[in-house]
Write a structure and sequence with these properties.
The chain is about 30% helix and about 15% strand. It is an alpha/beta fold and about 350 residues long. The strands form 3 sheets. A 5-stranded parallel beta sheet has the order 7-6-5-8-11. α3 crosses α10. The longest helix is centred in the C-terminal third of the chain and has 19 residues. The radius of gyration is 20 Å and the shape is globular.
Length: about 350
């Protein structure tokens, strides 16, 4: 194009923000496939299901995929994923579908409940029975908390809960912890009581935000790492934890404080995890509108910011080009984490363990 401005031909350099190389995580975790084999053909409903050693092996396999993505193009060849998203989604749906495609599988995608038999009154149990004949794994997102469980009872193929109303989003939490361990791979080793505490601030309400609830449920699997957590919220919700989470936190022996003042605590935090929206029935609601992060926020120089995305005004784009930005790394790493989980669920782990 003659006379075109140079901006049209700008070459974008690879993003370096939040992209620690996963090979260091591979060096920190000794491979042990025995912890992954029990995942075969399992339904994934909650972060509660995962044991610490299983999580570490999933993170190791995800790091293996991320370190050498071109070497794993066929493990799911011949397998079909049913991607059923009855609630709006960009990152989660595309992340799962990208993960499946990268491993050589095929996909059938449903993005509108109105185009299915459910619109005619068909039960989710019957839909699940039909899915048994069409695919090898189901990923379901639904505004109804009970939907994955209603479908699960009739399924003979694994189903993954990709977000069920206000309840949980377990694979988002898996991606979040994977991101943290890539940031500091040494954290995967059991830490002594006298080691410095990692200070985590979570801006959000667990009872209203499934990402925050699932994240806390996974953090308590690592009480030696996540033992100093501050929940930052505006106080508009009295019971911020919801059923049983308080008990789980107490049983894990970790410290969770609460604060209504972001400015007062943010300077001490190593990790700042912020969320602001929750899916309520058929629309989104915002919580903690007064909490916003931008370049004027007095962050510790070494602190990282995480966000499950999509973001709004709570997370300024002026932080995107700073070393605090690890939210893009979350989105990237989620693909490889889901590759690892899907491989295990459809019993193709053996095809990837010997590849280096």
């Amino acid at each position: 194009m003659v006379g075109a401005p140079d901006v049209f031909f700008k070459r974008h350099e690879p993003d370096t923000y939040g992209n620690a190389h996963p090979k260091e995580l591979l060096r920190q975790i000794t491979e042990d496939v025995d912890y992954l084999l029990p995942l075969a053909n399992q339904h994934i409903m909650s972060a509660d299901q995962f044991k610490r050693e299983t999580l570490l092996q999933l993170f190791r396999l995800a790091a293996k995929f991320e370190a050498n993505p071109s070497r794993f193009s066929t493990p799911l060849q011949g397998k079909i994923l049913i991607s059923a998203f009855y609630e709006p989604s960009t990152r989660t749906r595309l992340s799962f579908e990208s993960a499946w495609h990268r491993l050589g599988g095929d996909i059938m995608s449903i993005t509108d409940r109105a185009t299915t038999g459910i619109a005619k009154g068909e039960s989710l149990a019957d839909v699940g029975e039909m899915f048994n004949n069409y695919g090898d794994c189901v990923v379901l997102r639904d505004i109804n908390e009970k939907s994955p469980f209603e479908m699960m009872d009739s399924l003979r193929i694994p189903i993954i809960n990709a977000g069920n109303g206000l309840d949980e989003h377990p694979t988002q939490a898996l991606s979040d912890i994977y991101t943290i361990f890539k940031w500091r791979p040494s954290l995967v080793k059991r830490r002594r009581a006298n080691q410095p505490r990692l200070k985590v601030g979570i801006i959000g309400v667990p009872d209203k935000m499934r990402t925050v609830r699932s994240l806390l449920k996974l953090m308590i699997k690592f009480p030696d790492v996540f033992n100093d957590i501050t929940l930052i919220h505006d106080g508009s919700t009295k019971d911020i934890y919801g059923p049983r989470l308080t008990e789980q936190i107490d049983e894990a022996g970790i410290t969770v404080r609460e604060s209504h003042n972001l400015e007062a605590v943010v300077g001490d935090l190593d990790i700042v995890y912020i969320n602001a929206i929750a899916w309520i029935k058929d629309s989104y609601e915002s919580y903690g509108k007064s909490f916003k992060l931008d370049t004027s926020t007095p962050l510790k120089n070494s602190a990282i910011i995480m966000h499950p995305l999509a973001r709004g005004e709570e997370l300024s784009t002026d932080l995107d080009e700073t070393h605090h930005n690890w939210y893009f790394a979350q989105a990237r790493g989620a693909v490889f984490l889901r590759m690892a989980l899907l491989t295990c669920l459809v019993q193709r782990t053996g095809r990837v363990m010997d590849v280096v």
